[in-house]
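Exercise 3.2. Students should predict the tertiary structure of the chain below and write it as structure tokens, then compare their answer with the key that follows.

Predict this chain's 3D structure.
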Amino acid sequence: MSTLRTVLGPAVPFLLAAAPAFAQVSDAEAKAEIEFARGLAADWAFVDLAEQVIRELEREGVTKRIGEELGIVKCEVYTIGAKGERDPVRRNELFEEALTAYADFIENNRSSSQLAKAEAAFVNTSALYAQALALALEEAVGEEAERMRARQTDILSEASKLTQHLIDGLRSIPSEDRTEEETRELYELMLNRGKMLAEIGKTHTTPATPEGGIFFFNQAIQTLEDLVFLAVEGTPPALRAYVAMGDVFAYQQDWDNAATFYQAVIEQTIPTDRDVWLDASKDLTEAQKGLRFLFLEIATKGLMEALVNSGRIAEACRYGLHYYNTQRREGFQFTPYGYLSLLAVARALLDSGGFVGGDLVTGDAVWYETEEEMDANHPERQQRSSVDLALRLAQGINEANRGNILQVRAQKLISDITSRAGVAVAPDVLIEAAEGEYFEKNYSIALESYRRVMRSIEGADTATRSQYGSQVLNKVGRCFRALDRPLEAAMAFREGCTIWQDPLIAGTNAQSYYSMMTTIQRAAVLDKDALAAMVREAEQLVQKWETDAQDQVQWTIGERERNNKDYPKAIEAYKAVEKSSTYYEKAKVQIGNCHFRMGEVDEALKIFDDYVENYVRAPENAINGAAAETRRKEALAVAEFYRGLIVYTRGEHEKVVEYLADYFAKYPDQTGFTPFSMANLMRSYLALGKRAEARQVLAQMVESYPEETKTGEASAAFYTALGEMREASQDPEERTGILREMAEYLEISNGLGSPKYQNLRNESQHWMELGEWARAEPVLVRIQNVFADDPEAGEAVAKYVLPDLGQTFLMQRKTAEARAVLEPIALEGASKETTRAWCLSVIGWPQEDGSGGYEVVPGAGETAEDYSAVIDKLAALRGVEDRWGCRFYGDKFMIAWGYYVWGELDSRKRESAKEQIQNMANLLGEPDLASIDAACDSEETPKDVRAAFGNGVLRARFLWLRSMLNR
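Answer key:
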């Protein structure tokens, strides 16, 4: 069986040895390996490993039927790999390998039941490869372009010939006898043939030979028309054929005919007449509607290009808005096809120079040629130029497709729109463009975009300038603040509430100005008088723009004094906040905080308890409005945090649970208080012996606050507590359960961020102690990858981690992987156990199958040199062990087994294996080797060796091997 596939069997001690399987692989096992190979290529893009799995199966031997399926899979792996490959050069290489593999299979398996499947797959792969070359040709030039074009023609010609042969074969089957699968295959072949012929026509059409491809175009149309006739009008195959026919005419620049076919697809799926669609959609499921929208996505791009190129720009805009409106009304999700069509719609709108009226959100947009027409039908808030909408669409595509080619195309369109001469872009659209950069944290680029907005409103009326100026300056200030340029941020906020006075946002700017100036003032060394004057100006601006401005200033003074640790002054400021203010409750709670900071804990707790238990619950203190509700929640978060902290410091763990059990549920966004409270809650649960509850709290912390210091502290406390519980326990089952819990905790913790070496090492050792080899493996691999070159941990990785990784591979019977890890260590000199493990990886071992027989686990050795090196190492080990001890006998068995395995290459070595066993029997004077049991069951034998070889295990293996050699 393949050594690449993880097949977990019963745990076997790493000291035991095995040999290659000599029997042919069963069909069930082969099928499992075939699916594994497919998975390697499809799910992980490991084409090379998939090939290795296939080669190993071929080497081991399979039945004829499975062999044919294996041949198909070999081809499929290349195709799957090509489809998932991003590098164009490697992608083309894989396509070439796939076509070669399919061609070889078809040539060598003419009577195979898999032949039809291989031929159909050859056609599909050819079509995919031709599409990939077509995309590459868009950027290729010179000789490279000619070479690719010639290769594309060859591929299409060969495949199109085969499609006709396959089509004829399927069409010869009476329609009533044709299976559904055969019918689908027929339609797919006809569609592929039509597309291929059209592509061949394109390659034959050049400026010098404009009619060169006409024959192939006509053949393509004929094939696609036949498909429509067979599949019946309006079915998915027929609709796909219509799209393909539209493409054929587009290749010939016959735009009117191309538009006709694209329009037919749209009108047959989601018609432009809304009443017709509403009536038709009543009986459709959501899946059926989604399929229809997919056809709309596919057809719209071609229709936009056809209509624009034929000069029918108004019609293009109306169909484009039909597509846009349908998506908005029905809530469909765009596919990549859909975004390509949306880009085409945006470009058509840009080129139209018209206007769009109606509600974009509800999907009621209408295109108008003149502004007067739009004015007559829509209120001002629902009016915009086509350019504005084109830019909005391009921005939306840009945001939805970060990091792929669609984003590049969207950005190109945005650039075309904003740089087009004579195009006046509305300020709100420019703001959206700038905010895209702002929310991506590209603050320097966002600043330039916001400046452009300011330039665009220079000649506008006062109301417009105030509206946009105040809004934009708020964002400019935020950008400067994020860039750690506080004075420039303060000046932007100041300008946003003095020169540009939009009442809706000027108050916010005033508060931000005040906040920035107080920050600057605290950090300043010089010009303190000037800064103090600016702080006073900011306070006055806050009072001007905020309804409870004076209370906000008092609150801010209280916060400032509290931060300066002048708690009496802070309390005085907090007490000055009026009860009618939305800051009142926060101030009330911060008074308690100040008492807590001054060491007056009882007074603080009294204030917190009174606020939580009495004030908030009193009917006369009911609140109204979002602002007041927000402030109350903030105040409660502080009060509940501190009273929980106080009872925790007093060791009142039951009260901690009572006060803090639902803190996270109430205040998940309080990233300062919530992790702290949860850490205290977790510790209290542990103190109360409620480990499950403690673990649940910690899991929530790891999920919600992975980077918080308190999460790390709580994690360490939980892990330490578990370790202490395990040490104190005398129950083996309980100790194992706690160890598993420790390992699972570390698995979660180590999965976040960049864990320390020791944490990963602890996790790997826990899994190994539990016998969870498959879970230990990725941890050990991670340690090797991250810490192998670390100056502090590197030596430990080489000395301990790699041997453990080799052992982990062996326990999973991954002998090839074990050999790759252990061989460099073993050959350079390693511990005895590591050397034995390497020997096992080369020669394998026999494993009891539970029914009195043995299952052979194959080693990774292949050559006489491999086995000779193992025998030499084992002979050296035998010489350093206590003579006639259990380990000595174990090494003797491995030598005999090594010769037995070597005997598959050189039959003379079987005699050497016999001699090893017979010599030992002669020396012992015991044909039944009874002394082995006594040695391996002795109390003087190390526990791990006794567990591996005791209870007659090793002697039984000697006797079994002798019987195998005497056959």
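Discussion points: Residues 1-23 have pLDDT under 50 and may be disordered. The beta strands are 355-357, 366-368, 383-385, 845-848, 854-857.
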